[in-house]
Amino acid sequence: MWVSAMTAVIRCFIAATLAVSGSLLIGNSHAQSSVPMETWGSARAMGMGGAFTAVARESEALFYNPAALARVSGFQWTILDPRIGASGQQALDVIGAVSDDRPFVEKLDDLYGKSVWLGGGAKTAFVLPYFGFAAFTHGDVGVGLQNPAFPLMNLNYVFDYGFALGGALDLVPGIWSVGITMKRVNRTGTTLPLGPAVLANLDMEMVKEQIKNRGTGYGLDVATMLTLPSPVRPTLAFTIRNAGYTAFSHEEGLHAPPRSEPDMTVGGSLSFDLPLLTITPAFDYKYADRTDIQVGKKIHFGVEVDLPLLSVRAGFNQGYYSLGAGFDLGVMSVEAATYGVELGEYPGQLEDRRYVVQASFQLGMSGLFSSRDPRGSSSGSSSNSSGRRKLKQRR
Length: 395
Prior knowledge:
This protein is of the alpha+beta class. It is built from nine helices and 16 strands. The chain has helices at 2-21, 43-47, 61-64, 89-98, 104-111, 196-200, 204-210, 295-298, 389-394; strands spanning 75-80, 83-87, 114-128, 131-145, 153-172, 176-194, 214-227, 235-241, 263-269, 272-273, 278-285, 299-307, 310-317, 320-328, 332-342, 351-365. The protein has a 16-stranded antiparallel β-sheet that branches. β4 and β5 (153-172) form a beta hairpin. α4 packs antiparallel against α5. The longest helix is centred in the N-terminal third of the chain and has 20 residues, at 2-21. It is globular and about 65 Å long.
């Protein structure tokens, strides 16, 4: 039922965006590089600038670092955590520009350099020490226009739903672990470039047929994680998401949706426990093996300050600042974040400022098993994945 509900919400987003697309579709394929397609995103992670590989715990470990499942000491059931996001002022400018009565060709001058992004998703997940399972749905759609001299536009649209099953193994208890996540993903979507000839006679029926591309794929994430015994608990992590790559079959009469490319990430974090707060700085270097992605877009930094019931975050994502905050009441928590995404080839070229809100409803119990964290407390075993300080308040 929850998948059906979220599917309906996300498809409403897509319908609204495609209504705008009757006058516009997204991005310049020369000025705008391809955006790697994700199967899940976290508001907490984006508040930290995407530097999350060495920080993720509980159900988020299934999608960011399955080796962290070895650090779970209790159980957690994430009943549901719906997430919704949209781009900022540019989206309002685009909607205003296309909603007037002028002919389409007269609107183009007001639309160059603008973009629209809408996204959302939800999951339900259950994790135990060394094991986790999740059912999830995720979708986003983008719209924009660049290069008035030679207009070229892309429609980037993806809608996923599927399942993830993860497991982990301690090589050195509480210090060194490895893990894998296996995913089955049903994807609908496309990346559709539109040149000047198509734009001159824009056929929305053709566009709608293209976004029906649909197929099923199976993916594998592998990870390892090392935490050194120390007062500041330095953690290093290495993951390969979509190892090899995740390709999709296609249904009869349809094309296969775009595949998910491998993401080789190296990450690290520290953790400073103080009497009333915990400070966690982190970094990620993503797509380390991809030569087609500019180095500045691979670098992510972030920091989280975890207070009783409240967490605040900041970071840099692809050269742009990110901010986030989370409020936890035990059974329910709310996360919010803003972050910038580079739509061009290099940081500083074309920012898309995005805003995301995520609410989580969960049940859990920590401390049922011996601690697997070298610091001597049940790190990451809180009844939510949004921070450790809240666990200390609830125990």
